Amino acid sequence: MTDKEIESDRAKFISLHKDTRFSVERKYDYICKDDKYVQNGGMDNQYFIQDIWGARKVYENKPEVHYDVGSSVAGFIAHLQGFKQQVCLIDIRPMRNLDTPFLRSGGGGGKYTQANATNLTNIADESLESLSALCSIEHFGLGRYGDPIEPDAWEKALKSFQRVLKSGGKLYISVPVGKIDKVCFNAHRVYRPQTIIDTLNECQIIEMSYIDGFDTALCMEYRDDKLQIYQDKLDSIPDAVNWGTTGLFEFVKK
Predict the structure, then answer these.
(1) Which Pfam family name is an example for this entry (predicted)?
(2) Which of 252, 158, 234 is nearest to 199 (CA)?
(3) Which of 44, 75, 122, 125 is most buried, taking the most CB atoms under 10 A from its CB?
(4) What pTM does this model have?
(5) Please, are residues 224 and 176 in contact by the beta-carbon 8 Å criterion?
């Protein structure tokens, strides 16, 4: 909006305003210029769909405690708290604890550990039934979030995830995917889907899809004791110079 539009709206509002309970003095102004002509629902569709996808998976599995590494607290973790899932969060950045009476009510809430999640040294082997890392491991070792420079940190992290999962435990991952593996320094990496699958060699891929607008395109699914691969969907994964669409991966520990 222009200043002229705002002043026009103000004059019209004041001329129509009859409710004496509300003061309309300029000292209370909080001018918003960027909302009038934008489309409703102006959010990042990648995070929007990814967080719903992950929350649905956890809800269907209903673990006693779900562990998460670096996912969106305002998105994915908020969804989990919506259905009162207890969570344990691990991230290299500081954050307030989620252990409050409101969040704990009904079995929800959780604990927070500030740590470098690359090696998960504080978690025992084969001890977790449910673990997620949504749009986080692609950043590991690039220094963007104050973590140490470590080119293979993403791979170490996946091996650590695999180590701490119980047999039959579920792992939910999202990363940018594209035609080739590449580092887009210092923001993130982009992966071929097979690179993620090959690294998690003790896990079975259950589902792999990618986000397409406000939908997902299914590329692989484990069904009837066999991995079904939809090659046309794999081939249709879009490619970009320094970005990738969000790939969604569900694994189970063998």
Answers:
(1) DUF268
(2) 158
(3) 75
(4) 0.91
(5) no
